[in-house]
Amino acid sequence: MKRAFLFLAVGVVLAVAILISGNADAAPKKIAVIWDTKSDMVNQVVMGFLAKVRTLAPDMEIKQYRQLKDMKEVEQVFRECENIMDGIVVLRSSGAKFLGTVNPKVPCFMGATNDPTELGVMKDLNAPAGKITGVTYFIPYEKRFQIIMSLFPSIKSVGILVEKGHPSGPIEAKGTEEQCKRLGIAYNEVMATDLNSLLEGTKKLIGKVDLIIISNNRLVMDNITNLLPILNQAKTPTFSFADAPVKAGAVAGVAADDVKLGEFLAESVVDVLINGKQISKVPVRTDPDPRISINESMMRSLGLKFPDAILKGAEIVR
Asked: What's the CATH fold of domain 29-138+257-281?
């Protein structure tokens, strides 16, 4: 009788332990989403991310820390979140670069960022080490220049506008210069520190280059409305490494789909936090089919004619 009672008591204890464990496992996962300053790209990524998370893991608790003042504030919030969150998303190239300098306590995910290998975050996008994975808008420069040369086959010289001090600035300048060297195209750059140096540098390129490339750097992107009237009046074609300038008046561009990348980011977060995958088994994802955008009215005003095959597959802005 005593033995039967003992077995019963042990069974009750085990059942309670299993129930408690099950409830703990079922507790909603909590994740923070952090980024500094304003960015239209981040807004698109976050939109895709939130929509996909609501579908895949509707109980996940998401706390957004939007448009923090600077990276010092990002670091402060990040350290606080390490102690209370199951995972942290840090957005923008500045955020990815920051992740590369820390040893996170919890799984971390990056997005709205340039090439993480160039930023020093990791060595292999297909096999992330440590506790960091995510998505990147990076498109190989050879692919970008395949598109550029199909649109502007006779160009002999290129100028690129980049922001000095921006994490992506050196990456975009280096990638562009390497492709120009490979193709025998003269390379020029404007490394701007403020609006005045950006405008003055741009004016010096007019008449010197056949094509101006607009980088995906904050200073350049924030001043598209100041830049494009100068370039369009001079009949200098512009090609953008983002799609927003094409809508503003650049003649063409190529960019990853930010909403799609946000969805990919959500899938990676769910794979790690909900499905229990190791981060090393969750590659950093890219957009396999980046979008070509063409401003039709600007193409016509510059007297350009692009191949029908590209026009049919491109997003046409009118």
From this structure: Rossmann fold (3.40.50)
